[in-house]
Amino acid sequence: MADKKLTVVICQAQGRNPVKRQLEEDILAALMADSDVDVSLLPHLYDMPQNHSGMEFLRSVPGPLLVLGWLYERAIRWTLDRAEIRGHEGETLLKNEDDQVDEDAEMPELHGIGAVEVPDRRIYCIDLRASGDAEEFVEEVQRMVSAEHGSAFDLMSFIQGTPSEEQLSRYLNPERQLEARKALDNGTANSSDREALPEDTRRRWYPVIDYTRCTNCMECIDFCLFGVYGVDALDRILVEEQDNCKKGCPACSRVCPENAIIFPQHKTPAIAGADGEVSGVKIDLSKLFGGDDGESAIEMAVLERDRELVLDGRDAVGTSVGLKQRDRDEFDDLMDDLDALEF
Fold first, then answer.
1. How many CB atoms lie within 10 A of CB 94?
2. Residue 12: inside a domain, yes or no?
3. 167, 196, 225 — which closes off a domain?
4. Angle between helices 134-149 and 18-32 (to 10 degrees)
């Protein structure tokens, strides 16, 4: 029978917040003693470029995978998808309080747009902000291990990446990484410590597409004037030039009619990938996506885009470019009803 050992990957927080570091280290130390899992430590998931050896390592994992990161579950899942790290969605019970979903709703299948092959394995994603207690994460990992061993899971030979032996050894020796990271934090790191650590990453800003929500309407590619979006061979929208995105600007997310565009680092939960919804509709979408002083999501998006155009030495275009006229629908009626309620 094929090995079904669960691979657990802890993606580090940005910066050196001591509370976050301690939680990561406590989880790592506890899981290293568990023979039923393989555990590794990687840089922040969103910050690793596609050719980073950490991404190559993730692509090399053939079996069930759990990724723990400082992002909402949906943001983790679709950041992985963008790097062609795929699998069927695994159920997680430990969730960020902002990440509430309808328990009676059916779990959506990945890749609603286009025919993309999905390996016969599960990928679990957990937001490290869900708890400050390492034991809760360890208990959830143990539950996943039991679920994997109790299933009729047929492991496929699925290795996309080709990491070098040195790259693999870096991520397959988390104890050495932990020692090296502590030395770095204490200011005592030597050359050997630095070689044991993952390569440095810089903070990034780019959109991630949730293809279970995306309808391929192309509104994002029409609205964005910075060449971020393109289409693949299946005419499916994709983030083609991520570094063209303007740092801090989530305008395309505000104009997406399906809330399919995620900016994992945005301060607004709905834009950053939080999954709270009622009957499949974001009840607070216009409020959260708009401005503090009452601007609609579209008005806010236009202002953000114009600001970036001016900073780029170009002319502001206002509402004259990239906006489609939409017919009134059930969503508009729902928002009118909500606005009429007194809280």
1. 19
2. yes
3. 196
4. 40
The model's pLDDT over 208-246, given as tens digits with 9 standing for 90+, comes to: 999 999 999 999 999 999 999 999 888 899 999 999 999
Quick one: tokens of 261?
Answer: 């565009």
Burial class of 35 by CB neighbour count within 10 A (0 to 12, 13 to 18, 19+): exposed
Q: What is the 3-state secondary structure (H, E, C) of 301-335?
A: HHHHHHHHHHHCCCCCCHHHCCCCCCCCCHHHHHH
By residue range, what is the domain housing residue 33? 6-196
Asked, for residue 230, whether it belongs to a domain, the answer is yes
| Bridge partners, 307 (sequence order) | none
Largest pairwise CA distance in the chain: 64
pTM, to two decimals? 0.81
Q: Are 319 and 301 in contact (CB under 8 A)?
A: no
Within this chain, do residues 17 and 117 fall inside the same structural domain, yes or no? yes
Give dist(CA 296, CA 300) in Å, integer: 6
The token pair at 315 is 């002319």
Query: What are the tens digits of pLDDT across the range 291-339?
Result: 554 468 899 999 999 999 999 999 999 999 998 765 555 555 665 666 6
For residue 201, being part of any structural domain is answered with no
Q: Contact 81/116 with Cβ under 8 angstroms?
A: no
Cα 105 from chain centre? 21
Domain count, the chain: 2
308, amino acid identity: E
